[in-house]
Specification:
Elements: H1 2-19, H2 26-33, H3 36-45, H4 48-65, H5 68-89, E1 92-94, E2 100-102, H6 105-128, H7 132-154, H8 162-201, H9 220-231, H10 236-264, H11 271-284, H12 289-303, H13 305-308
Antiparallel strand pairs: 1-2
Helix pairs in contact: 1-3, 1-4, 3-4, 3-5, 3-8, 4-5, 5-6, 6-8, 6-10, 7-8, 8-10, 9-10, 10-12
Pfam families: DUF2232
Keywords: Membrane, Transmembrane, Transmembrane helix
Protein name: Putative membrane protein
């Protein structure tokens, strides 16, 4: 029953981190963003059942503190995605030689993208009661706030005519699920990595720490991206799901592109300078460079690009894809 006690503790901690958002302060917002970490840690370090207990306990606590809808939202958006990815990370089976074959980290990244997209759409459907017009109104309000904030920061709002402003709002409203899924993939990937490092330091991580630079998503991830782009041309929630899948898998491929560059530069002189310059360029270009990294990641998965441009360390059998 040890997993029950740890799950209860993690659920209460995660619920507390979530509930402080009502304070509406920068510190509260920062703590709120850390809410999935306790669920990830207990799921990876004790048992995935601890994560399920944490989701239930945290959801009940939030329902009592804030509202039943908030409690359900906590379970759906914060706890269950963290539990699911932890569950996948600890999947393994004995290999022919008796060694343990763990779930490949590349496939785990693909599932991170799928989880992010599905969570974004599920949250939208539940929050609007399945009313797509209300969903559109919500995305428009987000887009309008974003456009106003951008032009207020640059001081160019006064020179923007009403028609151009309306066109920009319509474009960003259409891209809201796309961009939200991109951001959620990044957050989930970072949180999973950080939680695994914490559990590894405590010597409770059952699987060996995978060499992340060697991750390669399966070719089927590219097919899902193509399907998402096709689905995005439709209307209603189907189109929104397509936008979310497109954004999520493009970001996942961009992360794979980053991993490939980390892999290709290992042992090279000036590696630190090259990687630092790359991250500075990503920041300066406001993520535009991520498009090129995504294309590199797609080529890496579908064409085996890293194998074609040079030798790379042979991955251990636990990470074979």
């Amino acid at each position: 029953m040890n997993f029950v006690a740890t799950g209860i503790g993690a659920g209460l901690v995660s619920a507390l981190l979530t509930a402080v958002i009502v304070k509406a302060t920068p510190l509260a917002a920062m703590l709120y963003l850390l809410a999935p970490i306790p669920v990830l840690i207990v799921s990876l370090g004790w048992d995935h059942r601890s994560g399920l207990v944490a989701a239930i306990v945290g959801g009940l606590a939030i329902a009592l503190i804030l509202s039943p809808l908030s409690g359900f939202g906590f379970a759906l958006i914060t706890a269950l995605p963290a539990w699911w990815l932890s569950y996948l990370a600890l999947l393994g089976r004995p290999g022919p030689d008796g060694t343990m074959e763990w779930y490949p980290v590349g496939r785990l990244l693909a599932w991170t993208a799928a989880t992010a997209a599905l969570t974004i759409i599920a949250a939208g459907v539940i929050s609007t009661g399945g009313d797509y017009s209300a969903f559109e109104q919500n995305t428009r309000e987000v887009a309008e706030a974003f456009v106003n904030a951008q032009f207020a920061a640059t001081g160019a709002e006064g020179g923007l005519d009403a028609e151009t402003r309306e066109q920009l709002i319509a474009i960003f409203a259409r891209l809201t699920t796309f961009l939200s899924a991109q951001g959620f993939v990044t957050v989930l990937a970072i949180y999973l990595w950080a939680a695994a490092r914490i559990v590894l330091a405590s010597k409770r991580l059952p699987r060996p720490w995978p060499p992340v630079p060697e991750l390669v998503m399966p070719r089927s991830a590219a097919l899902i991206l193509i399907g998402g782009l096709i689905l995005a041309s439709l209307g209603g929630f189907a189109g929104a799901l397509g936008m979310a899948l497109s954004g999520a898998f493009l970001m996942a491929f961009a992360l794979q592109g980053l991993a490939a560059i980390h892999d290709r530069t290992r042992g090279r002189s000036g590696r630190s300078f090259l990687l630092s310059a790359l991250y500075v360029l990503i920041f300066v270009t406001q993520g535009i460079l991520m498009v090129a990294l995504a294309l590199f990641g797609i080529a890496d998965s579908t064409l085996g690009l890293r194998r074609r441009i040079g030798t790379r360390p042979t991955p251990p059998p636990t990470l074979s894809t």
